Here is the input.
Amino acid sequence: MSLKAFHLVFIAASIGLAFGLAVWCLRRYAESAGQSDLIWGCVSGVTGVALIIYGRAVVKKLKKISLL
Here is the structure.
């Protein structure tokens, strides 16, 4: 696996984990109304969006590099 492919897979996994954590924290907040759950949920959601922006920038920058 090339470094480019590994990087793209790692970014995709990070996006999934960030949004998964956001959903989990926000569900916990809905059940228990803990302040920290709301904060972590929002931070994780923003991180997921930032990772999407970063991933698009990486794809654009590495467009000329072969995936193999």
About this structure: Residues 15-61 form one domain. The chain has a mean pLDDT of 89. The radius of gyration is 15 Å.
